[in-house]
Amino acid sequence: MINEFKAWFRMNEQRLKNGLIQVEIEQRDDPTEVIKAVLENEMHIASIIHWEIGALDVDVLSLSEGKSIFARRYDLENPNEITLVLEEVASKFLHRSFD
């Protein structure tokens, strides 16, 4: 599912840029495959980590409050679920709302 994670960010790169969201992606393959995306706008910074086993960890910090405002682990069973989660997080970022 790591390929789907990368593909989602490639397909949504312009949309995120237009929403003034900076994205950095890092990947490592040793000892297990892990990919991380860091999203940042003027209000929030998020870390989205996708583990080889299928888990996806999302942590969002409020820059003004200096604390975590959204933390969730998803245990994904198929590639379609990764798209749903990334769409949810992107929507919250684009609307500047994690309520």
Fraction of residues in β-strands: 35-45%
Query: Shape from CA axes?
Result: globular
Total beta-strand segments: 5
Helix content: 25-40%
Mean pLDDT across the residues is 93
Oligomeric description of these chains: single chain
Structural class estimated from helices and strands: alpha+beta
Number of domains: 1
> Main β-sheet, in a few words?
5 strands, antiparallel
N-to-C SSE string, H for helix and E for strand: HHEEEEEH
Strand order in space, largest sheet: 1-2-3-4-5
The total of helices stands at: 3
Distance between the termini: 28 Å
Spatial extent as radius of gyration? 13 Å
Give unreliable regions as ranges.
none
Primary descriptors:
alpha+beta, 5 strands, single chain, 5-stranded antiparallel sheet, 39% strand, 99 residues
Question: How would you portray this structure in words?
Answer:
There is one protein chain. The chain has 99 residues and is an alpha+beta fold. The protein has one domain (2-94). The protein is built from three helices and five strands; from the N terminus they run H-H-E-E-E-E-E-H. It has helices at 2-11, 13-18, 79-94; strands spanning 22-28, 34-40, 44-51, 55-62, 67-75. A five-stranded antiparallel beta sheet has the order 1-2-3-4-5. A hairpin with a 5-residue loop joins strand 1 (22-28) and strand 2. The longest helix is centred in the C-terminal third of the chain and has 16 residues, at 79-94. 17% of the residues are buried. The mean pLDDT is 93.
